[in-house]
Amino acid sequence: MTQFSHISVADVAAKQDDYAVVDIRDPQSFANGHMRDALHLHNNNLAEFVANTPKDKPVVVVCYHGISSQQAAQVIAGQGFEEVYSMDGGFEAWRASQPFESSNS
Predict the structure, then answer these.
(1) Is 76 a residue of the active site?
(2) Which of 7, 63, 73, 84 is catalytic?
(3) Given this model, what pLDDT does residue 1 score?
(4) Which UniProt keywords apply (predicted)?
(5) CB neighbour list of residue 55: distance below 8 Å, 6 or more residues apart
(6) How many Cβ atoms sit within 10 Å of the Cβ of residue 27?
(7) For residue 20, how far is the Cα from the chain centroid?
């Protein structure tokens, strides 16, 4: 069974363009702020993400504080992705030190 790994905010920030970033927070939280190019991943688009994302593309899963993302990362790893990470500290850690985007204008 494929396992996920942990990754720091600094490591993701250093090579953000190399990762497929998926954010599993609720829609309003995602709209209020998210990482650049992050996909809001939820039950209704998980199958599409799995089908359309190359299995050799590293995936970073983001939640609020890095707890829920661990379970989601395990599910994604189980879909055949070679590299899956749960970002330690979640979006709140990212927000504290990195730029982010908002869908709200």
Answers:
(1) no
(2) 63
(3) 45
(4) Cytoplasm, Transferase
(5) 80, 81, 82
(6) 10
(7) 7
pLDDT (tens digit per residue) in 30-83: 999 999 999 999 999 999 999 999 999 999 999 999 999 999 999 999 999 999
The answer to whether the CB of 95 falls within 8 A of the CB of 15 is: no
Cα(46)–Cα(40) distance, rounded to whole angstroms? 10
Which amino acid makes up residue 30? F
Burial class (CB in 10 A: 0-12, 13-18, 19+), 34: buried
Task: Specify the residue for token string 């890095």.
Answer: 66
Structural element, H or E, at residue 5: strand 5-7
User: Do 32 and 102 touch, CB atoms closer than 8 A?
Assistant: yes
Where helices occur in 1-105 by DSSP H, the ranges are 9-14, 27-32, 46-52, 68-77, 90-97
